[in-house]
Amino acid sequence: MVSVKNIRKSFDDNVVLKDINLTVDKSEVVVIMGPSGSGKSTLLRCMTFLEEPDKGIVKLGENEVEAAVKPNKKRKSSIRQLRQNTGFVFQQFNLFPHRTALENVMEGPMIIKDMDRNKAKEKAMTLLDKVGLADKVDHYPAKLSGGQQQRVAIARALSMEPMVMLYDEPTSALDPELVREVLLVMKQLAKEGMTMIVVTHEMGFAKDVADRVIFMDEGVIVEEGSSDQMFNNPKEERTKRFLRDVS
Ligand code: ADP
Ligand code: MG
């Protein structure tokens, strides 16, 4: 479903991603862990060309985009398609502050998919219900808790019917008591077969939900395996050290 081939990315002379290869199957849940600065966010951003990689290929379904080639019309449309088919949930919820929860979720389908207002509204209601916010549809973000805002952000990402969801530390900005409600929604989506790549340090989530755990450090994938293997029997010294530090 999703693959990243030989992705390299540097900022000036700082090589942040060193030929990363990653393939994720349909309905697979992959958790990425690693120390701060190891390149996790950059990898997710490169997957949607929010950052242009120096080289490599990103493939989503049949759509393949190669990095660092001359821009032309076809490429532009491939990148647009890549973004439309990818739901991105960030640490900071990035909701429109002057729109209600409902309007935040309606926006994408109406503007980008040209869906009519009533249909978009109906869809947004269904999605907000799904993330447990049926009674908050008319609230503005400022009136919602961090956990509720993040669930609106998840509903908003889902409104575009993405082929894959990317989460970049979705619970890191939340007060501890609000983490669980967001993880539960993510877990439910995983159960329903959503393909997901999740950068998180939530070990419980990884153990429960991940089909595969990847450990990144200094721009490379150091080690990957099942959560059982990664948490109970890591092979690499760097993985062991990291797990000791976060637990
Ligand atoms: P992580 O998400 O694993 O903490 P990042 O992908 O955010 O790591 O960052 C990896 C490295 O890339 C860090 O050294 C960071 O300083 C650098 N970096 C990330 N974004 C930029 C940028 N826009 N300009 C310059 N350096 C960046
Ligand atoms: Mg990051």
From TrEMBL:
Chief location category: membrane
One GO MF term: ABC-type amino acid transporter activity
Protein name: Amino acid ABC transporter ATP-binding protein
Membrane topology reported for the UniProt record: Peripheral membrane protein
Cellular compartments annotated: Cell membrane
Keywords: ATP-binding, Cell membrane, Membrane, Nucleotide-binding, Transport
InterPro entries found in the cross-reference section: AAA+_ATPase, ABC_ATPase_HisP-typ, ABC_transporter-like_ATP-bd, ABC_transporter-like_CS, MetN_ABC_transporter-like, P-loop_NTPase
Pfam families: ABC_tran
Lineage: Bacteria, Bacillati, Bacillota, Clostridia, Neomoorellales
Any Gene Ontology CC annotation: plasma membrane
Residue ranges constituting the ABC transporter domain according to the UniProt record: 2-243
Keyword Transport appears in the UniProt entry: yes
